Amino acid sequence: MKKGWKIFWTVIISLTGAGVVFCIIALCLGVTFSQFEKAYPNGIGIIRKDYVSFEGDWDDDDDDDDDDHRPEHTYGGMVNVVYFCEETNSVWANGEIWAAGLVDGKGNVNSSELKNIPEGYKLKVVGDFYYDGGDELRIQVVPEHTYGGMVNVVYFCEETNHVWANGEIWAAGLVDGKGNVNSSELTTIPAGFKLKVVGDFYYDGGDELRVEVVPMLFK
């Protein structure tokens, strides 16, 4: 046998023996063929199982992947609410509120979500307000309490059995349409008569306030 072949077979036998030794060591350490298959499902070296090439198909554009996971619609959002009052000619830009009923930036804002109403005021209308996605949502408010008001005063005199409906007077002491009317505000007393009692008269918000008068005595 030629010297070259001797070297070849010597190397082959050495590598085979080393492989057998390493296999025995692996088996002694508890390595199984199933574990090896899990670790290398596609094989190693020139032996490959179900080989699939991704060359030319690699997509490193993460934006496309993010688009696939974006929700179809956006629910809820912030709304810039501007309140206004026609009675006092006032405007308040009190900032944004969270509205759960919005879909893609538009939808209904419920009155219960309006947490920044100006102090001393209340909503003129309660319920849902439609927001079109613009710069602001304008909502009308009115004073929480109404001070002062007109009162229809009816005078009567038991002595002469007369009744006068002389119209309305302004009463500054009313709150939300009810309260005291001071005798100094009764400027429509019938001629030739005077109040039987001076002071405050309570008005309950009804159709009229009846005030008794008596004839004036002239000498």
List keywords for this structure.
alpha+beta, six-stranded mixed beta sheet, 3 helices, single chain, rod-shaped, 40% strand, 219 residues
3D architecture notes:
The protein is an alpha+beta fold and 219 residues long. It contains three helices and twelve strands; from the N terminus they run αααββββββββββββ. It has helices at 3-28, 33-39, 62-69; strands spanning 75-85, 90-103, 106-110, 121-123, 128-131, 137-143, 147-157, 162-175, 178-182, 193-195, 200-203, 209-215. The longest helix has 26 residues, at 3-28.
What would a concise description of this structure say?
The chain has 219 residues and is of the alpha+beta class.
List the helices and strands and how they pair.
Elements: H1 3-28, H2 33-39, H3 62-69, E1 75-85, E2 90-103, E3 106-110, E4 121-123, E5 128-131, E6 137-143, E7 147-157, E8 162-175, E9 178-182, E10 193-195, E11 200-203, E12 209-215
Parallel strand pairs: 1-6, 7-12
Antiparallel strand pairs: 1-2, 2-3, 3-5, 4-6, 7-8, 8-9, 9-11, 10-12
End-to-end C-alpha gap: 168 Å
- Main beta-sheet strand count, sense and barrel state: 6 strands, mixed
| Major sheet strand order | 4-6-1-2-3-5
Structural class, from secondary structure content? alpha+beta
Backbone CA Rg: 47 Å
pLDDT below 50 for ≥5 consecutive residues: which ranges?
Answer: none
The topology string of helices and strands comes to HHHEEEEEEEEEEEE
Q: What's the mean pLDDT score? A: 86
The amount of beta strand, in percent, is 35-45%
Binned, the helix content reads: 10-25%
List how many beta strands DSSP finds: 12
Total helices: the number is 3
Bulk shape: rod-shaped
